[in-house]
Amino acid sequence: MNCSRPIAGLLATSRVANLPSVVCNVWVGVALASLSGIFVGWLEFVGMAMAGVMLCLGGNFLNDWADVMWDRQFRAERALPRADFSRSVYGWIAIGFLLLGCVLAFAVSSASGWVAVAIIISILAYTYWHKRSPWAVLAMGTCRGLLPIMGAAAVWPAAVFSAAAALLCYIAMLSWSARREASGAVGKHPLFGFGVVILLTLFCQRFDFAEMMIWLIAVVVFGGWLHHARKNLSHSISRYVASLLAGIPWVDGMILWPLAWHTMHQENIPLALVLCCWMMPAAAWSLACLFQRIAPAT
To answer: Has this prediction a pTM greater than 0.85?
Structure first.
C-alpha cells in the first residue's frame, strides 16, 4: 500500500482545514475577556487553543468511527472504508484526543475545563444523533459556540455569549447544508439565517460610531464571502459547504475588528493583542483555504 494514502486519509479525517478557525474562535473569548480588564495570558491562550484543536480532532475521528457503515456506502474514499486503519484504532485516537483536550483545558482553569467537558458532551450528542435527527445540527453548533466561552476562561462578559450564539447559528446552518452532501442535492442559501448571525454579532458591539463603521466593513467582508459560497451552491453542495467552513473566521471578524479598534486606544492593552484581533480572522481564513487544497474540509 502506498504510504502516502494512509497519511492522506488521516489528514482528511482530521479536517485540518477547519482547525485554524477553532483557534480563532477561542481567541474571540480571550479578546472579549480583555475588555473586562483581565487579559487571560498568552500561555493560557495557547493551552486553550490546543485544547480546542484536540477536542475538534477527537470529534472528527469519533464521527468517522461512528459513521463507518454509512461511509462505506456514500464516502468510500475515506480511510476506514478503504481499510487503511482499523475501526478500533480510530476509536482510541478519538478517546486520546478528547481526553488530552480536556486535560489541557483544566490545566488553564477549572472553568475552561468544565466548558471542555460540555464540548465533549455536545460532540457525543452530535455523533449519536446526527444521522438520526436533523436537530443534531444544534449540538454541532454548540461545540463551536462553546469555544469562545472556553477562551474567556471564567471572565465571561455578556458579549461572549452573543459571540457563542452567532457561531452556534452559523455552524447549525452549515451542518444542515452538509446533511445533503451525500445526495448531492442542491438546497437554498439561508439568507435569513445568516442575517441572524450578523445581528447576533451586533450585540457584541459598544455602539461607538467608529466601531460601528468597522463592524459594517467586517459585515461587508462576511457578506462578500457568503456571495462567493452561494455561487458554488449551484455547482456542488460539497464546494458550498467547504466555502462556508472556510468562512467561519469572518464571523469572528465581525466581533474582533471592532474590538481591535476599541482596544488600540487603551493604554493597558498589549499591542500584540490588538494586532491579533486585526489579523486572526484573515490568517485563519487564508490557512483554511490553503489546507482545503491539501485535504477535504468535510
So the answer is: yes
